[in-house]
């Protein structure tokens, strides 16, 4: 069983290109050849060999191999005990990073997953998704994420070269959490618990990477959001304060002045004056253009 899928415009970060399950005949092989997408094979039973970059791997049930785009590979079923396997082909901007998190690289393309049959179950669910019409592509992408999450969760401990990558992931998770939750009364402890790291360790990673503490980043993010609201005359300073996570107006004023150098009311007055000035200039420009195009050049 094999199914090929069209190019995804909705899920550019990760999307399936094909998937399938096959019981190979003895000695069945493919290659040497290259692929234009990532192709992950998982052995369900039997044995076979996978060759890439001068290395030869003999694989059995519970093991798998990853083919990288543009890399020459060869694989063959055993003649006495041929393997059956399932596979998923995929691409996307997030694919390489997810695979690195799972410990899969060009120099280390083999993985082991012998805990249960969840990978096979996900392939079956992909096949059963034909009953979905409007949401099938989204469902398939979700199942691909679930499959890769198994390899990430139960893969090898991150190697030293991935330390920087993991730090970037944690930092982005902090920034995303703040972006989604800054209107709420959140603490650094809340962020650390969400990401699953020790508070002190996370703070150290973030400051090392961003040259600013998480607390200061949260404050600056909230104040910058408040500044974006200052041009809306329908919102009072108290409304803006509550909208960015400060129920205490005095604390908001204190933090605002610390970041922007002036009190919220003074900053707003400057913003509104600038808006009025820009509006006058715009009206004057329109009037001058009207005169020009009607032959009344001053």
Descriptors:
10 strands; Jelly Rolls; 298 residues; 47% helix; alpha+beta; four-stranded antiparallel β-sheet; elongated; transcription regulation; six-stranded antiparallel β-sheet; AraC family transcriptional regulator; AraC-bd; Arc Repressor Mutant, subunit A
Describe this structure in words.
This protein is of the alpha+beta class. It folds into 2 domains: 2-157, Jelly Rolls (Sandwich), CATH 2.60.120.280; 164-265, Arc Repressor Mutant, subunit A (Orthogonal Bundle). It contains 10 helices and 10 strands. The protein has helices at residues 95-101, 118-128, 136-154, 163-181, 188-195, 199-210, 214-229, 237-243, 249-260, 264-293, and strands at residues 2-4, 15-23, 29-33, 38-45, 47-52, 55-60, 63-67, 73-77, 84-91, 110-112. It has a 6-stranded antiparallel β-sheet with strand order 1-2-9-4-7-10, covered by helices on one side. The chain has a 4-stranded antiparallel β-sheet with strand order 3-8-5-6, with no helix packed on it. Strand 5 (47-52) and strand 6 form a beta hairpin. Helix 2 (118-128) packs antiparallel against helix 3. The protein starts with a strand and ends in a 5-residue tail after the last helix. The mean pLDDT is 87.
């Amino acid at each position: 069983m094999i199914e090929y899928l069209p190019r995804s415009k909705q899920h550019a970060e990760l999307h399936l290109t094909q998937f399938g399950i096959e019981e190979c005949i003895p000695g069945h092989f493919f290659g040497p050849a290259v692929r234009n997408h990532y192709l992950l094979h998982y052995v369900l039973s039997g044995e076979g060999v996978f060759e890439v970059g001068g290395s030869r791997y003999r694989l059995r049930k519970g093991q798998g191999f990853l083919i990288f785009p543009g890399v020459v590979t060869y694989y063959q079923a055993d003649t006495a005990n041929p393997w059956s396997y399932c596979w998923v082909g995929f691409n996307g901007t997030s694919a390489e990073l997810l695979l690195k998190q799972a410990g899969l690289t060009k120099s280390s393309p083999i993985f082991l997953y012998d805990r249960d049959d969840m990978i096979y179950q996900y392939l079956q669910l992909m096949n059963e998704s034909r009953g979905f019409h409007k949401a099938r592509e989204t469902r398939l992408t979700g199942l691909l994420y679930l499959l890769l999450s198994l390899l990430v969760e139960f893969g090898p401990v991150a190697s030293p070269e991935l330390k920087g990558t993991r730090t970037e992931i944690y930092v982005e998770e902090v920034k995303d959490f703040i972006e989604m939750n800054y209107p709420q009364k959140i603490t650094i402890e809340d962020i650390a618990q969400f990401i699953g790291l020790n508070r002190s360790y996370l703070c150290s990673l973030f400051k090392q990477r961003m040259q600013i503490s998480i607390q200061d980043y949260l404050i600056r993010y909230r104040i910058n959001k408040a500044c974006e609201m200052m041009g809306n005359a329908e919102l009072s300073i108290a409304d803006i304060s509550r909208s960015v996570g400060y129920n205490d107006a005095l604390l908001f004023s204190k933090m605002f002045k610390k970041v922007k150098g002036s009190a919220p009311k003074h900053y707003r007055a400057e913003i509104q004056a600038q808006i009025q000035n820009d509006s006058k200039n715009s009206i004057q420009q329109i009037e001058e253009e009207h005169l020009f195009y009607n032959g009344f050049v001053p």
